[in-house]
Design a protein that fits this description.
Structural class: alpha/beta
Strand order of the largest sheet: 6-7-4-3-2-5-8
Number of strands: 24
Shape: globular
CATH topology of the largest domain: Rossmann fold
Largest sheet: 7 strands, mixed
Number of helices: 25
Distance between the termini: 29 Å
Number of domains: 5
Helix content: 40-55%
Radius of gyration: 30 Å
Bound molecules: adenosine-5'-diphosphate, magnesium ion
Strand content: 15-25%
Length: 717
Amino acid sequence: MARRLAQLAATDVGVLRGVGPAGVEALAKVGVHNVLDLLTYYPRRWIDRGRQADIDTLAAGEEAMVLARVRSASSRQTRNRRRMVVVEVTDGTGSLSVTFFNQPYRERQLRPGTEVVLFGKVELFRGRRQMTNPLVDLVGDRTGRIVAVYPQSEKAGVDSEQVDRWMVEVLDRSGVFEDPVPPPVLERHGLVDRTTAFHDIHRPDSMRAKERARERLVFDELLRVQLTLVARKRELERTTPGFRHQVAGALVDRFLAELSFELTGAQRRAIADIGADLAEAHPMHRLLQGDVGAGKTVVAVWALLVAVQGGHQGALMAPTEVLAEQHHLGIQRLLEELRVPDDDEGSLFGGAGLERPLRLELLTNRTPAATRRRLLAGLASGEVDLVIGTHALIQEGIEFRDLGVVVIDEQHRFGVEQRAALRARQAGGAVPDVLVMTATPIPRTAAMTVYGDLDVTVLDELPPGRTRIETVWARDPDDEAGVWTHVCEQVAEGRQAYVVCPLIEESDKLEAASAEETYERLAAAELAGLRLGLLHGRVPPADKEAVMAAFRAGELDVLVATTVIEVGVDVPNATVMVILDADRFGIAQLHQLRGRVGRGAHRSWCFLVGQARGADGEERRQAEERLGALVRTTDGFELAEVDLELRGEGTLMGERQKGHNDLKLASLRRDRAWVLRAREAAELLVGDDPTLSAHPGLAAELELFLADEDTEFLLKS
Ligand code: ADP
Ligand code: MG
């Protein structure tokens, strides 16, 4: 009978003949407990014996892979007291001297007679070929052309050869696997069957076979994620009562007519997408992606006004108080002149033709108790039309009379749970439409996985008249002096500047202290005579407010701050952004910070100060690439691609995806095309059947692989 993966998951690795108690313990340390864990403990590399180089043909400077046998290994101390292991290897054509620094265990590991694969750069030393600290794989006496190399752990006591032996038994005893993916889907994407895939990922006859196995397993991983997302979306659409908003109306017409600018084409398209969602019976669930300054706010406010126009309420939730306040100010300005046509026929004063002001409120943890009480009453009675706030909006005790549209800014800081909580704040009845805005552009296929249950609209066009931001990397201390001169010149011309202090992630307190130090130094030296303000996480709220207000009003020339100014701060007169120790920041963060300037009519600059540092060469290279990318482009999507390339998807998925630990082989970068194929297949398979009742095998696997939270809806029905 064909095997199901669930059966393997229910079988302890201890039942394998080759795995004794010591093996069980070692495997547990690398997270392998059951047979399915072991089967999906995939090789990290495959070595093609046919491709290795002969030692006697190696040229100096060349990166090479060599398959050889150890002749001798010895260890000694260097003059500066480092441990050095020297290993002599030969492959029959010649010999190679391999030196390891600070890896004393190599002497034990590489006993004479051991067969090893070495990857490294060939050097010539006194006429002899050698390698220093190459990558090492033990291949044992495996025959066959392709050798799988498993992740090894010296600490856990798991080595590749051992895993390889266990894998033979696993594959042998598993036999044929049941394949839950319907044949037409496999055919459409040219995929091999599951039995072949598991066999060939571990013991391929050729690199091509390994590649095809990988494709199939990658597809399965991505399909499970997409099935979950698509099914959840369908299920929500089917079961959740939403509002059928009346999109056309006097209030939104007025709002658009009174704007001081023309909407961009992208804004118009976004409004059309959102309008269509709002008019549907089921709740909207849309992501609005747009680079900094793309004009998301107008689009969001438009959606909120659709709610107000229909007699409902709207809420906008921001991740920080500074941002909530900023939004409140900006939106207040946008809505200043706007009056709500009151066509309530039954009203006391005789109905149509009357107008009333729109009631917009701000709710954060700083809202004084009395105001807060009044505000909560207004939300519950429906008198408050729009509320802007932080997490405070989803706290216990807050109830809306009739919440029609919710906008969440900066989604990556909110989780699914918070969105659900906001929905639950409703006294009863329909579920509000939700628009999520993010200024952190992420590549489309990644979005499809990370935000896969959302529809996506992209604002891919900046409003006209934006000035270019020139980005300069001041990497030498000499360059830094020029940066401060430039700041002074700009201030002399009536402009303002930001100085962002070094990021200290571990400690708020240290960061504040360093910001204060920077402030003192600049005030006393480089920027003496200018009006400076200081802003960091430890500044008391009231002072923070005062500093921001003063900067906005132009009473301060330079704002020295930590990343508290990362999002939302909007002062068009500011034209210089100086980021100190810029190599400490991530791409997205640098891009956000840079977006604080170039918001007005004046030419703007961003100075990245500092060298690319790092604990090792790789870290330095990455810092170098990050800063280089910032200098090269201001396109957020291009930067997002670079970021994904550098950091991998792990960081991107973050908390939200912690349940999706199933992506063992798939890479959102490398396998972009497969994300799209999996999405297509998922849509086809789910169809009108969100519980996957027609595909019980797949439904069972979702349950097996993905976190409870994600599959709850499948089990419930
Ligand atoms: P985002 O939130 O996407 O970063 P904002 O909504 O804050 O961008 O818009 C940035 C600035 O551009 C605001 O001052 C806003 O008034 C202005 N703006 C928005 N849309 C347009 C447009 N179509 N034409 C000109 N200016 C616009
Ligand atoms: Mg709707």
